[in-house]
Design a protein that fits this description.
The complex is a heterotrimer of chains A (309), B (684) and C (241). Chain A has 309 residues and is mainly α. Chain A has one domain. Chain A is built from eleven helices and four strands; from the N terminus they run ααααβββααααβααα. In chain A, strand 2 and strand 3 form a beta hairpin. Chain A is globular. In chain B, helix 2 runs antiparallel to helix 11, helix 9 packs across helix 11 and helix 20 packs parallel to helix 23. In chain B, 52% of the residues lie in helices and 12% in strands. Chain B has 684 residues and is α/β, with parallel strands linked by helices. Chain B starts with 14 loop residues before the first strand and ends in a 7-residue tail after the last helix. Helix content of chain C is 37%, strand content 27%. In chain C, the strands form two sheets. A six-stranded mixed β-sheet of chain C has the order 6-7-8-3-9-10, with helices on both faces. A four-stranded antiparallel β-sheet of chain C has the order 2-1-4-5, covered by helices on one side. In chain C, strand 1 and strand 2 form a beta hairpin. The chains are: A mainly alpha (309), B alpha/beta (684), C alpha/beta (241).
Chain lengths: 309, 684, 241
């Protein structure tokens, strides 16, 4: 491939990764915006959801690369998979909130965050113990359709991923800006006590944030499986790190920030892999995280005073 | 009018934070009751020590001794993390990085795999016995015992390096940054093979030698080294905790702003906590690697950091014996109990023909169990097995309802403890000129000028939102003024940090009381003395006689200061301030400010929330401070208090000074009345 | 005039600090009643107790004859109590329109919503001009208009205002107090906590004066305006028994 084609390919890859990280970061930031809580369990919900997605597709009879669908059948299968995964992921997120986080709401300091570390451990190990440590083959029902773009290859799965991500992000924006509950969420994030005085049920808002955030994680998880064709108990760590950095880079608590941050991190990962050896990617991402937190904690779009003591 | 003699009864069983009685939980109805209270800890410690020393003699199984030695390593790590998280309140999620650094530092200098080429450079090291020359290459033969402190020092260095960027971050962000560093270290270890041999790990790490005899593979000598290490770290933790250093850490943990306002250099002490915590881990890393004779990156990753965190949460954050117990229990759980439990479950599975039970391996689920323990403890028993704050005897009914004895008129000799009235000019003690403070678009203070002559009391009054507390904040360095000058005792102080301002002699209280909630009355007041004491980490560790004397004198002085309030606070010196009544908390905060020996005392609404009787009492106590010659600036809106105490009154409204003069003049001033009661409808 | 809101011997605590001490208030429908007092007198706590943020330790708060004990904040808003919060507390990154919408959160959308919106616009033409602006970018006076408008969107029977003049220039203060009178004439009962006693008494029917949590003076506004003791209460000079 020519160099341009190479870079173009990486940009295509980066955008797909970015879409996934953006969705994962969005879910994370929704909760943070309201509760100012760093929820480690979010990334374990992501990982569990990828298995849910896998089982949903297998339920339809699809497994491995065996069955290929097209047209309406494909659309139907994918819609089913996304709907089921997102719904169950959302419920899982709400369960975590009700059981482990709601009692911690009154406690000041890092206690709630520590609890999310514990929950994350439980989910992580629950999958490890039941499903095992090997990575599992993720069903891939998509036909091998590709297009040539100036030397780079654009596959159907990438177009699909971008479409899903765009639809979900637009959906979220519409929800947050046009619906009553969505506006109540924004109001609660900006001034929870004033929101309460308007008669807003802050508890319900929190549950909604967890549900939506986890549902987005579920979508991201399904995208992961469709993109990489595998899933395993460990995917929460790597994707989580990148999504978390994306949220911080974009400005923690900001919806726009999570989207922009996700794309940027996706591009950095893809293009960075060209420049540095892949084994250094984690260090680079961590370094970005640390640098942003230390020198520019509000990120690109965030509110000031969220991170300083 | 309420009887001024009756003190408010306080809830039964207030809690104490003093280190003293660590085994109090055994107190209720046990043979321990036979032994006198002050001897209980000594007896307990003696029994634990004897048990630890005799352990390998009683249990002759090498595998068990080996497990115990491993458990001791984690107890040491728990003690180290306890300093950072438990004492100083800094959540470090990447603690295993220091473990790794200590391990690799020793490993690099004691492994047969590292083989630099021979050159003249190594000659002097060979003479010192630190390297061996075989063929063309050099092998390191640095003694294990020498490496213990060296690794600790190297780790401490990294502790400071990793801690420095986190200093200004809020708790959860600090945790994330430390998590980042904690991850970067093993990744670097895996990818820089020249030093660390990469993913395969360092092998062939030399065993320690004692007078020529090599430790070999028997676990027992390692076990004893472990006991020694843990004993040393327990001793270090205990001495630090009950010293000026420990108090400074706990003050930072409880309320950073108040800690700074009481003279504690937060940067220095946070870095010190990171450094000492890291040093513990570094030394333990050396011990662990010497025992295993290998070091791989997997040993130091995030799950290890989390495990140590679970240990201290389980055992009791901040409690020295608690975290040791937590670490030992969880390690024993992992290495002994789960194995046995798995066998029983297999047998049960065979008995009732449940396939799943026959195959379960609980030791694989140790992380799951840790997760469950962590969540359960956080939800239901956040203070851990052995809480850091312990109950003390409740006050007897007599003590609770005792008549308040006014303090005996302090003699001139005793008055010395109440601040420093030595300043006599020339010029005023405090001179504020043209002070302006802006918060975004809002002007909180506009060109405010104020003078406090030596030995005088100035009152600052004004309606809500007029900028009174902002004035205090700007003068003491909590807020940086946009323009204007502040001269204190002749020197400018506008841009000094709060702890330096305190050091210069200006102490303050806060409008909504900022005491250290989980520290006792005495500990709170002792923190006030922070800048007047000299003991550093070394002095605290060595328990030099000078340091002990200093602590004694400090305690005596604090009691004298508390005596200013009669018998309201003295019976409660060992009570945690969170259990005190509102009025007593105010008094305690004032005592804490006085303990710093200030030249100028800034009191922000000291009588707020007090009933008339308490108000009169406190006004009298402030008056005795004034009579001693201490200069005071008082924010107060009870005008009778102002009239009785103030030489001069300054009135602020909407950030500007609108009147100044003696109390009588000011209270009749039209402008002042209008400021308080509001303008009437503007005349057209 | 029927009694709309009443406090009967209400005690509140903040930790162990006794804030409100057996206070009694009465507000009849159609009145403007103001609560005066100096710093730390308990005025804000009174407001919070009405809204339901602070729960009395003793005593009872009655609204339209029924006790508010156990009634949620949302339900109180639905029953017709709406707050104008101290320092406005608009949602800074939501538009003026969205802020007004939030005021009507407990109500269904429909013709009544539009009516109320029109009412707000007619009271505050400036607000209508700035509908699409983020509330955080408005000036203090404009924010106060929006805050009052937001409360009116709940179509309240009782409007609780916490220090409406705080932080406003004298011109705006006049405007705000004029509007309060207009709203009252349109049928809304007003309970107002104010530090600016002079302005408040010029439009109120009755007033209570609080000092360290106790009612030390009360009566028709006209009488209190002449009363020397108000000055003493504010300047913290009155000896409380």
């Amino acid at each position: 491939m020519t160099t341009t084609a190479l870079y173009l390919q990486q940009i295509i890859n980066g955008l797909s990764l970015g879409a996934m990280y953006a969705l994962l970061a969005l879910g994370f930031t929704l909760v943070y915006g309201i509760l100012e809580l760093i929820n480690f369990a979010h990334f374990s919900v992501f990982m569990v959801s990828s298995f849910i997605g896998m089982w949903a597709l297998e339920l339809l009879g699809l497994s491995g690369q065996g069955v290929i669908l097209t047209g309406f059948a494909l659309a139907g299968a994918l819609i089913f998979a996304f709907a089921v995964t997102m719904l169950l992921a959302g419920l899982l997120g709400v369960a975590v909130e009700r059981i482990a986080l709601r009692p911690m709401r009154a406690v000041r300091g890092t206690a709630a965050m520590i609890t999310t570390i514990g929950v994350s451990y439980i989910l992580f190990n629950a999958i490890l113990l039941t499903v095992g440590a090997d990575s599992k083959n993720f069903p891939n029902p998509m036909p091998n359709v590709r297009w040539d773009v100036f030397g780079a290859t654009l596959r159907l799965r990438e177009v699909l991923i971008w479409s899903v991500a765009v639809v979900l992000m637009i959906g979220l924006q519409l929800f947050v800006n046009r619906t009553r509950l969505g506006k109540a969420m924004r109001a609660t994030a900006q001034d929870a006590e004033a929101a309460r005085m308007m008669g807003i049920d802050v508890d319900r808002v929190i549950i909604t944030a967890f549900f939506l955030g986890s549902a987005l994680a579920g979508a991201a998880a399904l995208i992961f499986g469709l993109y990489y064709n595998y899933t395993s108990f460990i995917i929460g760590y790597s994707a989580g790190l990148r999504a978390f950095t994306a949220a911080v880079l974009g400005g923690i608590g900001s919806v726009t920030g999570a989207m922009v941050g996700g794309i940027i991190i996706g591009l950095i990962e893809a293009l960075g892999g060209q420049v540095f050896a892949v084994r250094w990617t984690d260090v680079i991402i961590f370094s970005i995280l640390v640098l942003v937190l230390v020198f520019a904690p509000t990120g690109l779009f965030g509110r000031p005073s969220a991170t300083r003591s | 009018m309420t009887d001024p003699g009756v003190t408010e009864p306080e809830g039964a069983g207030p809690r104490s934070g003093m280190m003293g009685d660590t085994f109090a939980f055994l107190r209720h109805g046990s043979p321990v009751a036979w032994i006198a209270p002050h001897l209980r800890s000594r007896v307990g410690i003696a029994m634990v020590t004897i048990g630890a020393l005799l352990f390998p003699v009683i249990i002759r199984n090498d595998a068990d001794i080996d497990s115990a030695a491993n458990a001791l390593a984690f107890a040491a790590l728990a003690l180290g993390l306890n300093i950072v998280v438990g004492f100083a309140g800094l959540l470090d999620l990447g603690y295993a990085a220091f473990f790794a650094i200590g391990a690799y530092t020793y490993g690099a200098f004691a492994s047969f795999q590292i083989e630099p080429a021979w050159s003249g450079f190594w000659q002097p090291f060979q003479w010192l016995g630190l390297v061996a020359h075989t063929g063309d290459v050099v092998h390191f033969t640095v003694s294990f015992w020498l490496m213990l402190p060296i690794s600790a020092a190297v780790a401490a260095f990294f502790g400071v390096a990793f801690g420095a960027p986190t200093l200004r971050l809020k708790g959860d962000y600090l945790a994330i940054v430390t998590l980042g560093f904690g991850e970067i270290v093993p990744i670097v270890a895996r990818n820089v093979p020249s030093v660390t041999n990469g993913a395969m790990g360092l092998n062939g790490v030399a065993a320690p030698q004692l007078f020529g005899w090599s430790f070999g593979i028997d676990a027992t000598p390692y076990y004893y080294v472990g006991v020694g290490l843990v004993a040393l770290l327990i001793l270090t933790s205990t001495r630090l905790k009950s010293s000026r250093i420990g108090r400074a850490w706990m003050a930072i943990r409880e309320d950073e702003i108040a800690a700074a306002a009481m003279g504690i250099d937060r940067v220095k002490f946070k870095l010190l906590a990171f450094a000492i915590g890291a040093a513990f881990a570094g030394a333990t890393g050396t011990y662990f690697v010497a025992k295993l004779q290998t070091a791989t990156p997997e040993m130091f990753m995030f799950p290890v950091s989390v495990m140590i965190l679970v240990m201290i949460v389980f055992g009791g954050i901040g409690s020295i014996w608690g975290v040791v117990l937590g670490a030992l229990i969880l390690q024993i759980l992992q290495s002994w109990f789960l194995e046995d439990l798995s066998q029983w479950l297999h047998a049960l599975g065979r008995l009732i023909h449940v396939e799943w039970l026959r195959q379960v391996e609980l030791s694989q689920s140790i992380e799951m169990i840790f997760g469950i323990i962590l969540v359960t403890m956080m939800l239901y028993r956040r203070q851990g097995l052995i809480p850091a704050t312990r109950p003390v005897q409740a006050l007897t009914l007599a003590e609770q309802t005792a008549l308040v004895e006014p303090a005996a008129a302090p003699s001139a000799e005793r008055l010395r403890v109440f601040g420093d009235s030595s300043f006599s000019g020339p010029g005023p003690l405090l001179e504020i000129k043209d002070l302006t403070v802006r918060f975004g678009g809002l002007v909180a203070l506009r060109s405010v000028a104020l003078t406090v002559p030596a030995h005088s009391v100035v009152a600052v009054i004004g309606p809500n939102g007029s900028g009174k507390s902002t004035l205090f904040n700007a003068v003491t360095g909590l807020v940086t003024p946009d323009s204007g000058t502040v001269r204190f005792a002749g020197r400018p102080i506008e841009r000094l940090p709060p702890h330096t301002v305190l050091d210069r002699g200006m102490a303050r209280t806060f409008q909504n009381i900022r005491l250290f909630p989980n520290l006792t009355v005495l500990e709170n007041v002792m923190v006030g003395m922070h800048t007047r004491l000299r003991t550093g980490a070394v002095g605290a560790l060595m328990r030099l006689p000078g340091m002990l004397r200093e602590e004694e004198e400090a305690r005596a002085r604090c009691r004298e200061i508390l005596g200013l309030f009669g018998n309201r606070l003295l019976p409660r010196v060992d009570h945690v301030v969170a259990s005190l009544s509102y009025a007593n908390r105010r008094r305690c905060e004032i005592a804490r400010a006085i303990a710093s020996g200030p030249k100028l005392l800034l009191l922000d609404e000291p009588t707020a929330g007090m009933n008339p009787a308490e108000t009169i009492e406190l006004a009298g106590q402030i008056k005795s401070l004034k009579d001693h010659g201490l200069a005071i600036v008082l924010i107060e809106h009870k005008l009778d208090v102002v009239v009785s105490l103030a030489d001069n009154v300054v009135v602020l409204d909407h950030g500007e000074k609108i009147a100044e003069g003696t109390p009588d003049v000011v209270r009749r001033d039209e402008e002042v009345i209008r400021a308080y009661l509001g303008r009437s409808a503007a005349v057209a | 005039m029927p009694e709309l809101l009443a406090f009967r011997a209400v005690d509140t605590y903040y930790g162990d600090l006794h804030v409100l001490k057996a206070v009694d208030y009465r507000i009849d429908a159609g009145e403007i009643v103001c609560l005066l007092g100096g710093n730390a007198s308990g005025k804000s706590t009174t407001m919070k107790a009405i809204m339901g943020v602070v729960v009395p330790a003793r005593g009872d708060i009655l609204y339209e004859g029924r006790s508010l004990a156990g009634v949620s904040i949302a339900e109180r808003v639905r029953r017709g109590i709406a707050p104008v919060l101290e320092a406005r507390r608009l949602f800074p990154r939501m538009t003026v329109y969205e802020n007004l919408e939030m005021g009507a959160y407990t109500r269904a959308r429909g013709p009544e919503f539009d009516e109320d919106l029109q009412r707000v616009f007619s009271l505050f033409p400036r607000v209508e001009e700035r509908l699409k602006q983020f509330a955080g970018t408005l000036s203090g006076g404009e924010q106060q208009m929006v805050a009052i408008g937001r409360a009116l969107m709940a179509r309240p029977k009782l409007l609780c205002m916490d220090e409406p003049s705080m932080g406003l220039s004298p011109v705006f203060v006049e405007q705000v107090f004029d509007i309060i009178q207009t709203i009252n004439k349109q049928g809304t009962t007003i309970f107002m906590v104010e530090q600016n006693a002079n302005m408040a008494l010029s439009i109120a029917n009755r007033a209570y004066v609080l000092q360290t949590g106790q009612v030390v003076l009360s009566g028709p506004a006209a009488e209190l305006r002449e009363n020397e003791m108000i000055r003493e209460a504010y300047l913290g000079e009155m000896k409380v028994g």
